[in-house]
Amino acid sequence: MKFFDQTADSGNTVSRGFCPDCGSPMMNINSSCPEMRYIHAATLDDPSIFKPTMVVFHRTVQPWDLIDPDIL
């Protein structure tokens, strides 16, 4: 992966990982919790097995993005 760093509004560094061949986004790492990896669901061979367990940035959710209230 090729990573690009960006400073978030919080001041943390977000490292965004992309495929070096096609440029597709693959994952993010935030300096506030470097042990976690935020993997883009579209990179999975079978995204139907993915079950979200938390929502990040739910305060800025778009009205068309319906979120399961049990994981807020």
Q: How would you characterize this protein structure?
A:
With 72 residues, this protein is mostly beta strands. The chain has one domain. It contains no helices and 4 strands. It has strands spanning 2-7, 13-18, 25-30, 38-39. It has a 4-stranded antiparallel sheet with strand order 1-2-3-4, with no helix packed on it. The termini are far apart. The model has no long low-confidence stretch (mean pLDDT 91).
Order of helices and strands: EEEE
| Computed Rg | 14 Å
Q: What global shape is seen? A: globular
Distance between the termini: 31 Å
Secondary structure: number of strands: 4
Main sheet attributes: strand count, strand direction, barrel closure: 4 strands, antiparallel
Low-confidence stretches: none
What's the quaternary structure here? Answer: single chain
Percent helix: under 10%
Structural class: mainly beta
The fraction of residues assigned to DSSP E strands is 25-35%
Number of helices: 0
Count structural domains.
1
* Strand order in the sheet with the most strands: 1-2-3-4
- Taking all residues together, what is the mean pLDDT? 91
